[in-house]
Specification:
The complex is a heterodimer of chains A (about 325) and B (about 260). Chain A contains 8 helices and 18 strands. With about 325 residues, chain A is α/β, with parallel strands linked by helices. In chain A, the strands form 4 sheets. Chain A has a 7-stranded parallel beta sheet with strand order 7-11-6-1-4-5-12, with helices on both faces. In chain A, helix 5 runs parallel beside helix 8. The longest helix of chain A has 17 residues. The N and C termini of chain A lie far apart (about 55 Å). By secondary structure, chain B is an alpha/beta fold. A 9-stranded mixed beta sheet of chain B has the order 9-8-7-10-6-1-4-5-11, sandwiched between helices. A two-stranded antiparallel sheet of chain B has the order 2-3. In chain B, about 45% of the residues are buried. The chains are: A alpha/beta (about 325), B alpha/beta (about 260). Strand 18 of chain A pairs parallel with strand 13 of chain B.
């Protein structure tokens, strides 16, 4: 009989990604409600030190799989290890972040296990008959579908920033289980040559709590400096629209919207962005939207919680100064 | 080189989404397009053929309307197509569709399989990777650069906050995203030629599958249309006042910052 909620943790160089803690925090609530044990599964190399931190967020049990072949994520090795653990442990549900890693791993794992997968979910509810149901945006957020499964385990990837991280409880104890990595050599098919992650003092776009984003109205690449200054005062990331990427002002990796990143921050500040449907597709689930645009008819104002009709080159630096005052 | 491109026909990005009387997504009167991410796959497939020779086959699933999307891809330069068409496809999920696609591909040779990293309708990003798992070949997702030498592919893929370069042996499944290429427009000559290209329609029975093979793993409880996000407050006043007021509202009303 299937038992437990498993959260597949994501870490990079022994730093846990925020979405994993969001899922563990929400998992704790479901575990308390359903009486199911909550298990954190951490894969990597040199990760034993992470167990203590993970425990404080409410895991009943932590499964650690430490192996040098798991130091960097690879589809094959992670699928191999998790497939075996899940078959042995028989959880009810397996959750992971809808990150680049989660999007690559979850479908492979689901197919190997012969189960369903709810991808990019923005909601999760306990369900009397099938344990959990998931709510996921479809048609770029223009509709939602609620899905569930009677096949165990239910797999789901959850959009970052959907749930909040609970306050850690230093007294919480978890059982720690070390498992050896059993990797089928046939699974090691992709050879990693290089990982390039640009060092940045700003948070990664998809997990940022605050995003300051600029579009066509920025006029040139240099002007993005004023958005960066604002972002740095409030601890945000800097995003952009397709128009600015296509104009060659910003790198593709910063693009928010269809054909770019889907983000769900607490606060999204859109500067000089008209609000094309393709852009809304990538940021429409933000909790608060602020629009600064000189065109009072810009579509972005139809969805913004707060709007300023004005010249962003005037307003943004003033806003930066206001936040500086507030932070003092 | 035997190149396969899997595409999906989707609603136009601008399409308004409404539910029909059965609570399903209404598809009447909606303009249909090739899923934008699949256009990168089509372009890359054609480029590979131009470089290495061989042929490019487009594979899709769905009803007769899908032929229009396939013909467009042929007008861009794809050589031939296979459309899997069967009413039973409507009552399955990603798992079932992957089984069907894998079965269809097992009837043709392939060195590389390309498909968009996500379809903009169901947004599930599963099918291509599930397909690779059934075919027991590697998959690399969100690819922005693809270089092939012999049977070895060197691939740059997007990850959160950066990129990763991996090497895999072909055959492999590649999911494509923006940055890989600039999809071409069909030429007039291409459109003329596309009409004569081979487009084979197969049913599940012809693939040796029954509706049982398509039993879904996931059940849809319901679809819903969210309430439209409402326009909030426009903050009036001189820029300095407006900025001050916005900062105050974010702090006191929205309780952020």
């Amino acid at each position: 009989m299937a038992k437990g909620i498993w959260i597949i943790f994501e870490q990079r160089n022994s730093e846990i990604r925020k979405v994993s803690l969001e899922l563990l925090s929400q998992g704790r609530k479901i575990a308390d409600e359903t009486g199911e044990p909550l298990v954190a599964v951490v894969l990597g190399h040199g990760i034993e030190g992470l167990a203590k931190e993970v425990a404080t967020y409410g895991a009943d049990k932590i499964i650690l799989v430490d192996d040098e072949k798991l130091a960097e994520y690879s589809t094959g090795a992670y699928t191999s290890v998790l497939n075996k653990l899940i078959r042995e442990g028989e959880p009810q549900a397996v959750l992971m972040g809808n990150t680049a890693l989660g999007k690559d791993l979850a479908p492979r794992l689901a197919q190997r296990l012969g189960v369903g997968l709810a991808s990019d979910c923005t909601g999760m509810e306990t369900d009397a008959t099938s344990f959990l149901s998931f709510i996921r945006p479809i048609y770029s957020g223009k509709a939602f579908t609620q899905v569930t499964s009677n096949v165990r385990p239910i797999l789901a990837t959850i959009r970052p920033n959907t749930f909040t991280v609970a306050a850690p409880d230093a007294s919480h104890q978890a059982e720690i289980v070390k498992e050896t990595a059993s990797i089928d050599p046939a699974d090691l098919r992709a050879i990693l040559k290089e990982v390039a992650i640009a060092a940045s003092k700003r948070p990664e776009l998809t997990e940022a709590d605050i995003i300051v984003s600029g579009g066509r109205g920025m006029k040139n690449p240099e002007n993005f400096a004023i958005l960066e200054q604002l972002a740095d005062v409030i601890g945000g990331a800097v995003g952009t629209s397709r128009a600015a990427v296509d104009a060659g002002w910003r790198e593709l990796k910063f693009q928010v919207g269809q054909t770019g990143k889907t983000v769900s921050p607490t606060l999204y500040i859109a500067c000089g962005i008209s609000g094309a449907i393709q852009h809304l597709a990538g940021m429409g689930s933000s909790k608060f939207i602020v629009a600064i645009n000189k065109d009072p008819e810009a579509n972005i104002f139809t969805i913004a919680d707060y709007g300023i009709v004005g010249d962003l080159f005037e307003v943004v630096p003033l806003l930066t100064e206001e936040f500086k005052k507030l932070s003092k | 080189m035997n190149i396969v491109v899997c595409i999906k026909q989707t609603f136009n990005t601008e399409a308004k989404i409404v539910l029909d009387s059965n609570g399903k997504i209404e598809d009447k009167g909606v303009n249909l397009i090739i899923n934008p991410y699949d256009e990168y796959a089509i372009e890359e497939g054609i480029k590979l053929k131009e470089k290495f020779g061989g042929s490019v086959t487009v594979v899709s699933m769905g009803g007769t309307t899908v032929q229009a999307a396939m013909r467009t891809s042929m007008a861009m330069g794809i050589d031939k197509g296979i459309l899997i068409s069967d009413p039973a496809l409507e009552n399955t999920d990603e798992h079932g569709r992957a089984v069907v696609l894998a079965k269809a591909l097992s009837t043709i040779p392939y060195d590389i399989i390309l498909s968009g990293r996500m379809a903009i309708d169901d947004c599930s990003s599963q099918l291509a990777i599930r397909l690779a798992e059934i075919l027991n070949i590697p998959s690399v997702s969100s690819v922005i650069k693809l270089e092939i030498e012999g049977t070895q592919a060197t691939i740059t893929k997007e990850i959160d906050g950066g990129t990763k370069i991996v090497e895999v042996a072909l055959p492999a499944v590649i999911t494509t995203t923006k940055g890989l290429n600039e999809p071409r427009y069909p030429s007039v000559a291409g459109i003329m030629k596309s009409k004569k290209k081979e487009l084979k329609i197969v049913t599940l029975a012809e693939l040796g599958l029954s509706s049982e093979d398509l039993t879904p793993k996931m059940n849809v409880v319901k679809h819903s249309i969210p309430d439209a996000r409402k326009a909030g407050q426009k903050i009036a006043g001189e820029p300095a006042q407006a900025a001050q007021e916005l900062a105050r509202l974010l702090r006191e009303e929205a309780k952020i910052l």
